[in-house]
# Entry
Amino acid sequence: MSDVPIAWFTAEVAAENLITGASGTTASATLEHRSTHDVLSLTWLFAHPERLSADLSLTSVRRTGRYLQVERLWWIWCKTELSQAPATISREDLAFALGAWSRLTDTDAIRGANLYGLAAGSKPLRTRLIGLHRARQAVDAFCRRHA
# Structure
């Protein structure tokens, strides 16, 4: 029998709480929402591996935000965490995290899309950049409200 990926589900709840807290209800079927959700879930999972709580304390949200500051550093950090997951991350949690990573790195999913006024056929957008930008906005909004 498989274990339930509690740490991943906790990270997803924390991500959703940050997103909805920042912008109210959002259309969860949009690329922006999905990529923001994936970035925040991955960051929460690896920034708080010992914490099985989605409670958004100012300290935990600030800690999450520190990882999101520089796109390249987040990319390297997250990739490293995925390849060398701590023992506190179960095999099932890691499987969900790898699914989120795959969505963030699949440029074919948005190739040729006319997003933000970009012409079809232009260089594909990087989903993780959209997610990181929106994740930083969500964290900043939370910190401003709770400082």
